[in-house]
Amino acid sequence: MATRPYETTIHTDFTERMDYGGYLQLDLIFAAQKPLSEHHDEMLFIIQHQTSELWMKLCVHELRAALHHVQQDELEPCFKILARVKHIQRMLFEQWAVLETLTPSEYAQFRAVLGRSSGFQSAHYRLIEFLLGNKDAQAVGVFSHRPEIQTILSNALNSRSLYDEFLAHLHRQGFAIPNSSLDRDWSKPYEVNSEVTRVFKLIYDNPTDYWGPYEMCEKLVDVEEQFLLWRFRHMKTVERIIGFKTGTGGSSGVKFLRAALDTRLFPELWDVRTEIGS
Questions:
Q1: At residue 6, does pLDDT exceed 90?
Q2: CA 204 → CA 36, 170, 207, 264, distances in Å?
Q3: Contact 269, 214 (CB under 8 A)
Q4: The model scores a pTM over 0.85
Q5: Are 192 and 271 contacting, i.e. CB atoms less than 8 angstroms apart?
C-alpha cells in the first residue's frame, strides 16, 4: 500500500505553542456531553442539540451583523451574510436526519431524564426569531431564572428586527414606506401593510434601477423559506419519534410546532409575488 511521505516541515512540538485543540477549546467542548442515563442513544441526542445550538449561535452572530449594516444603509455586505445564514439553516435542517435514526422505542428509554427541559427553552432559537421579527413577549418569561439571558432577549424584543430595519432603510432612500411601519411598538408582531407591498412591487418591476433593495428582498425570502423548512423538518422529526405526545416542556408537541408553520416573517415579500406582472 502506498503511503504519503511525512513532510519534515510539519510542526510536531507544541510544548509551548497553541495547538488545534487548544485554539478550539476541544477539551471543554468534549467534556460537555454528560448523559444522565446508561442508554447508548442519549449521546446522539445531546450532541445533536449541542451542535444545533452552536449553529444557531453563529446564525445570531450573522444576523446581528446584517442588522448593523442595514442601519448604516450598507446593503451589499448583507448579501453574503444572509447567504451564509441560509446555509447555516440548511445545516440545521439536515441535522434532523441524524436524529431521525433514533426510534420511538429507543427514545422512550431515556426521555424521562430530560425532565422539563425542552427546545422551547433555547435562547438562541428565540433570539433568531426576534431578530427576524417573530416577536412574542410571553416567551421571554421562560428565562426568568436566567436574568442575563432575559435581558438580551428583552432588548431584542423591544428593538427593530432585520425586516423593520430594512423598511427604515427604504424610507431613508425615498421609498413610500408608511409611518405605521416605521414608528410602532417593536415588541409586537409585524402587521402586513398593502402600502409596503406596493413599494416592493416598484422594486421588483424595476430591478435594474433598484438592484440593492431588489437583491436584499430575495436574500430575505431565501432566509424565511429555509427557516420554514427547518421548522417543518423539526415538526416531522418530533412526530416520527414521539407521535402526538405532550412535549417535555409542556407544549402540545406536534400541534404546537405545526401552528408555527403559519407564521410569516416578511409578509409583503410574499404578497408582492401575486402582484408582479399584473
A1: no
A2: 54, 14, 5, 20
A3: no
A4: yes
A5: yes
Cα-atom radius of gyration of the chain, to the nearest Å? 22
Which residue has cell 476541544?
26
Measured CA to CA in angstroms, residue 247 lies from 87, 115, 132, 221 at distances of: 28, 10, 25, 30
Give the pLDDT score at 278: 74
d(CA 52, CA 128): 13
Q: Counting every residue, how long is the chain?
A: 278
Q: Please give the Cα distance from 60 to 62 (Å, whole number).
A: 5
Segment 218-247, tens digit of pLDDT = 999 999 999 999 999 999 999 999 999 998
220: cell is 430575505
Residues 6+ apart with CB under 8 A from 124: 53, 56, 57, 59, 60
CA 71 to chain centre: 20
Spatial distance between the Cα atoms of 255 and 204, rounded to a whole number of angstroms: 36
Per the CB < 8 A criterion, the answer to whether 144 and 273 are in contact is: no
Tell me the pLDDT tens digit for each residue of 121-163: 999 999 999 999 999 999 999 999 999 999 999 999 999 999 9
* Cβ partners under 8 Å of residue 112, min gap 6: none
CB under 8 Å to 110, separation ≥6 — which residues?
Answer: 35, 36, 37, 39, 41, 42, 45
What is the residue-averaged pLDDT of the chain? Answer: 95
Cell of residue 243, nine digits: 407521535
Distance of CA 119 to the CA centre of its chain: 13
